[in-house]
Automatic annotation (TrEMBL):
Domain of life according to the entry: Bacteria
Pfam families for this protein: NUDIX (PF00293)
Nudix hydrolase domain boundaries: 18-142
GO biological process entries: DNA repair; DNA replication
The reaction(s) this protein catalyses: 8-oxo-dGTP + H2O = 8-oxo-dGMP + diphosphate + H(+)
Alphabetical keyword list: DNA damage, DNA repair, DNA replication, Hydrolase, Magnesium, Metal-binding, Mutator protein
EC number(s) on file: 3.6.1.55
GO molecular function: 8-oxo-7,8-dihydrodeoxyguanosine triphosphate pyrophosphatase activity; 8-oxo-7,8-dihydroguanosine triphosphate pyrophosphatase activity; 8-oxo-dGDP phosphatase activity; 8-oxo-GDP phosphatase activity; metal ion binding
Protein name, entry field: 8-oxo-dGTP diphosphatase
Cofactor(s), by name: Mg(2+)
Amino acid sequence: MTLSDRPAPGPQGADAAALRVVVGAALLDGRGQVLAARRSAPEALAGRWEFPGGKVEPGETVPAALERELREELGVAARALSRLPGAWEVRPGLELHIWSARLLDGEPEPLQDHDALRWLTADELDTVDWLPQDRFALPHVRRLLAGDVETDRTPRSHPTPQP
Ligand SMILES: Nc1nc2c([nH]c(=O)n2[C@H]2C[C@H](O)[C@@H](COP(=O)(O)OP(=O)(O)OP(=O)(O)O)O2)c(=O)[nH]1
């Protein structure tokens, strides 16, 4: 059972006030690859892989938070597309949501919080050491990737290796 199955907060909104969302991006390149990022901090999480993103600030929408985090952490412009099913507890009061996102401009770089980035195909999703909660999202990401190949034909914003 995921946290999405819980009853909605009561009319006072007390649960909602206590609950914070961290949003991760399944950032697609339009060619069937998704970006994974290796955390550099804190020490307990360093070396584990995640979907780049961060906590939604008070008063901010989830898509806006995602787009802001991708600008700050990776230096890219991206558009949040839609939320994947599920919500997973990171710790009490903090739950993880994953959204699909499209890279619009820029080449992702590990500017903040990460020390490595990898574009992964569906077949490569299991080749990195994901944070535990992120593993629950992988079946949804795999489905997303199956529908991502050549969905748009605009030039990729990250370079193709030359022979
Ligand atoms: N960004 C991100 N965080 C994740 C994922 N999976 C997962 O368990 N987490 C956890 C790691 C952290 O405990 C927490 C997010 O914290 P964060 O440090 O990335 O948030 P933030 O960028 O907003 O940083 P701060 O304002 O707290 O300094 O959620 C994921 O896929 N992406």
